[in-house]
Amino acid sequence: MVDSGSRDAQPNFVEATAHIGVLRVAIGFLQGVAAWLLLRLVAPNNYAPKPAAPPTAYWATQHPMLFVALALITALIPIIAIAEVSRMRQKTLLTYLGLAALAIAGFAAYDIWRDPLEYYGAVNSVRVWPSFQLSVCTALGLFIVNQLLEHRQRGFTLFAQYTQHFEDSWTRGFQLVISLIFSVLAWGVLNLGALLFGLIHIDWFKTLLEHNWFRSPFMAMAFAAAIHITDVRPALLKGMRNVVLTLLSWLLPLVVALSFGFLVALCFVGLKPLWETRHAASILLSSCALTVFLLNAAYKDGDPATLPPGLLRFVGRTAGPVLVPLAVLAFYAIALRVHQYGWTPDRVWSIAVALMALIYTGGYALAATYRTGWLKPLEPVNVCASLAILALLVLLLTPVADPARLSVDSQISRLAQGKVSADAFDYQFLRFDSATYGRNALLRLVSGPNIQARERAARMQATAGKQYFGAVPDAAITENAFSHATIYPKGAQLPQGFKETDWSAPTNPECLRNGRGCEIFVVGYGLPGEVAVIVHPNQLPAGRFTSDNISVAQLYQRDGINGWVNTGFFSHMNCRAALAALQDGKVATVAPKHDDLQVAGMRLPFSGTHPTMSSDCESVAPNDVPQPNHAREPQAPLNMGPAFGKPGGP
């Protein structure tokens, strides 16, 4: 029998829950409205094609630091408010939100200061969105701070009540994932409705979904509603979480067995095959991260009453000792690359992850040696690791350990010490891949004492856009045009005026603009006595050749008005026989398969939709083999008759 006090308390609980739900949805609505207003301040070409005005006319482009700060605050702060509105005292929550917003604004301002531009080929623009690293690291850092602060709000000290640590953090993480999935599904249902209405030619609903003023508030409100629904039914959410973690925990034996087998095999084959992959560290660290996650899924809250089966307990004790060699190998692999080639931003981030892997694996290996309770020391290891992650994130997102700053200092030091020569130095890294620190270092090189470095740095300084030419940096980009171009046939000379033509347009091959390698063929083409130039930007160092390379060459002919111009393309340039014949000058022109049309005094040229990119050398038909050029007899215009299908027609 339920007493009257319980009956009286039940309506109050329902009312409080409904009040919190309305408040959460209202916060979500305000978040969506704020997101819509922010999108109105940014150039549409940043998130949609065809801007209505030049990007410089938009407020976000004029105030990028402030916009990035507002964008991150709008994305993250309301989520904290929605999640904690029923768990923290009002004064504490408001103070927490204010301090978090200030921290986000500071990180965002530095993020834009250090790297204010984004590069799209030769077109540069002001960056108005936070970097990927800042977005991910800020979200991760706030999640950790949020859960530690929530634990404190419950009255527990940092290392006390690990069970509550587990419940809060893993349930919150699972709740956020479920809510995000719910929001996406809700938006999918609306799009399905738009398709249904479209079947009967009612398009207003589809048009409604295309407007940011509708979809931004809707998605934010759906996410807030999902947070509240899962909060109201904590037992259901906990049950779903435990089922997922239990299933995942049974992957732990498989991962540990594979890792152990890898280490045993490594004793026989040695480290050389591992280093030759050039990405061993990333795979090793991924294996460590997955194993740590699965081990925590098996451990859960460490309650002795809910210990996993004996097999999982045995594998859990062996996981730490197995992981230590993997983490050490990953750390050594990164350190080896740093010793050989210096720091880069990727290596700085990788070494930070490797440090965390050493903390986790070392702590778990130590926990495996304790016999009182199953992996009980794992609990303080996880808490300490979360604090270490926070410290690393703060260092990496500030000038203290900015990956770009550390990398630039390292590379410039290697150049000054002669560990890398001026002609092999990666100037493009300074210009485009190391933020403001790299560009400032490039300016110092332009006025520095090293003559070779000064000339190359000046050429890179004048480069408008980043060049993409594979994973290995090529210093030839800073050399003079045509310096690495090979001219065929042997002994041939470039036609007069070709080298002096302005090749600065990005559509021209790189070797005409800088020192990149290419093959240039001088051939007889066009009217009798005329020559043309074929540029094939497919020359690789040491004569390497792969089927993945560019298979199209550009044809340049003399223009009486503009000098030399690109008039078309030649395909099948990846066929060895064709390249060998071109190098020997064994070239003949043939009549085209398709004639142009002359209509109303105009010439309508025939062309395919795009240059052929086929890599199938056998696709060239036998009758396409070049034959000696011959004069083409003029053909009479086709008599199409009054209309197709009528008398006089074909």
Describe the structure.
Strands 3-4-5-6-7 form a five-stranded mixed β-sheet, with no helix packed on it. A two-stranded antiparallel ribbon has the order 1-2. The protein has helices at 4-39, 59-62, 64-84, 90-114, 132-153, 162-199, 204-209, 212-232, 234-249, 252-269, 272-276, 280-299, 310-341, 345-368, 378-396, 403-416, 427-432, 435-446, 451-461, 576-583; strands spanning 117-120, 123-126, 485-488, 518-524, 531-536, 553-559, 563-570, 597-599, 602-604. Residues 1-13, 47-51, 539-549 and 618-650 have low confidence and may be disordered. It is α+β, with helices and mostly antiparallel strands and 650 residues long. It is 55% helix and 7% strand. It is built from 20 helices and nine strands. It has four domains: 4-232, no CATH class; 246-396, no CATH class; 403-477, no CATH class; 480-624, no CATH class. The termini are far apart. α3 packs parallel to α5 and α10 (252-269) packs antiparallel against α12 (280-299). The chain is globular.
In terms of topology, how is this protein built?
Elements: H1 4-39, H2 59-62, H3 64-84, H4 90-114, E1 117-120, E2 123-126, H5 132-153, H6 162-199, H7 204-209, H8 212-232, H9 234-249, H10 252-269, H11 272-276, H12 280-299, H13 310-341, H14 345-368, H15 378-396, H16 403-416, H17 427-432, H18 435-446, H19 451-461, E3 485-488, E4 518-524, E5 531-536, E6 553-559, E7 563-570, H20 576-583, E8 597-599, E9 602-604
Parallel strand pairs: 3-4
Antiparallel strand pairs: 1-2, 4-5, 5-6, 6-7, 8-9
Helix pairs in contact: 1-3, 1-8, 3-4, 3-5, 5-6, 5-15, 6-8, 9-12, 10-12, 10-13, 12-13, 12-14, 13-14, 14-15, 14-16, 16-18, 18-19
